[in-house]
Amino acid sequence: MTFSKTRLLRILGTCAVLLLAILAREAIPQNNFIAPIPSVQTPEADTAAIADTLAQKSAGGQNVKNEQNLFEVVRVIDGDTIEVQKNGTVKKVRFIGIDTPETVDPRKSVQCFGKEASAKATELLLGKRVRLETDATQDAYDRYGRLLAYAYLPNGVFFNSYMIEEGYAHEYTYELPYRYQKEFKAAEARAREAGKGLWNPAMCNGKK
Questions:
Q1: Which residue numbers are catalytic?
Q2: In what residue span(s) does the TNase-like domain sit (predicted)?
Q3: pLDDT digits (tens, 9 = 90+) for 90-145
Q4: Cβ contacts of residue 127 below 8 Å, gap of 6+?
Q5: Cβ-count burial 64-87 (b if 16+ within 10 Å, e if not)
Q6: Which residues pair with 195 in a beta bridge?
Q7: CB count, 10 Å around CB of 124?
Q8: Which residue, 54, 112, 141, 204, has fewest beta-carbon neighbours within 10 Å?
Q9: Measured between alpha carbons, how far is 49 from 60 in angstroms, rounded to an integer?
Q10: 44, burial (CB in 10 Å: exposed 0-12, middle 13-18, buried 19+)
């Protein structure tokens, strides 16, 4: 059997194509493993924690700007003591660094400006979600089992300082100096100088 030149060239061309295909396949590794691209962790998860830490440091303390430290005020006992609730648990809180005139102590009569201090605390706190801040210089709880804390109103007002500044409370140090002692003493001096609240000579003139 004879082949024409043209037919022979076609056969040779087809063989060449097949050969090239085989060689190309052999050149590719059979275990076609592609190393996974390492996942890059975005910083969003850490941003909140970092911001929270910075907020705590800027306030000089702990437990600041943290959702876990927001509590609803369910009762105002007097100007320096409240009850808060979170997840069905009620906790009694005694404010650090302030002392308001007594209104509920059965051993004492109602003291001068006590009703006004309690009324102001009720106005500012009752039914609000406040942020509580503890103080590492103080015990977590007092001898009556009350949590010792500072409170911040929803609008950011520092409640403890406000009560002293406006003459509703005396500055109060129990045994050890607390974080904001210097600031609270200065606030009391300003209230006394201005004759605000319980410092008003026509009211209590600073007497309890």
A1: 94, 102, 146
A2: 67-201
A3: 999 999 999 999 988 778 788 899 999 999 999 999 999 999 999 999 999 999 99
A4: 72, 73, 74
A5: bbbeebbbebeebbbbbbbbbeee
A6: none
A7: 20
A8: 54
A9: 16
A10: exposed
